[in-house]
Amino acid sequence: xxxxxxxxxxxxxxxxxxxxxxxxxxxxxxxxxxxxxxxxxxxxxxxxxxxxxxxxxxxxxxxxxxxxxxxxxxxxxxxxxxxxxxxxxxxxxxxxxxxxxxxxxxxxxxxxxxxxxxxxxxxxxxxxxxxxxxxxxxxxxxxxxxxxxxxxxxxxxxxxxxxxxxxxxxxxxxxxxxxxxxxxxxxxxxxxxxxxxxxxxxxxxxxxxxxxxxxxxxxxxxxxxxxxxxxxxxxxxxxxxxxxxxxxxxxxxxxxxxxxxxxxxx
Length: 266
Hints:
Blueprint lengths: L2 H41 L6 H26 L4 H18 L1 H16 L7 E4 L2 E8 L3 E5 L5 E5 H4 L5 E4 L1 E3 L2 E5 L5 H14 L10 E7 L4 E6 L1 E3 L3 H18 L18
Antiparallel strand pairs: 1-2, 1-5, 2-3, 3-4, 6-10, 7-9, 8-9
Helix pairs in contact: 1-2, 6-7
């Protein structure tokens, strides 16, 4: 048999297999690109962070290409079942080795799709609190009022009790006035100060009233709503304005007082 005959025999025997495999790979590449674009459009409203969205799109494309490659290898006559079994055994080993990493990824995906909180919201869990600044596959980052950052692994978040305050907070401010003070005037002045502050939200309306009858004073409670990012500034401004207005209207803010009596022989 001549070389020409051998070549012709190989072309006839394997030509359709090679052509079929090439066609499958080409179709797989087109499908991976189309599915990747579709996934990216679907995630735009759910996942706001571009790096995370790009990573998820790439994972989807890789899965499509891997499936295409397995089908193409089957066309060449490779035994796919042993290969899949080997990959499965290796995957179990890798899963045990990277149990914490995989747990964070799965928890991160759960957070992304269920949305128990979003970037910009103020949350509290696991004894820590702060404003959410980033949500990634492995962890969530919070920034506290002192600008320090807290990084929480996502697997620690899923399944825990989560308090989500949203993007606004209600301040809990207290100021004491003397028992002899004019309470109606003090409450009216406190309301004027709070509503005049530009950082205080109109809705929900602030709550202002008497909180407690303390030993040396009547405690007024001022509870306005402000944006999370302006909590510290608004608190300082309102306290300063309250003190200045009370002083200008001769409303006394008393010091704690104690009466000491000495008992004994005169």
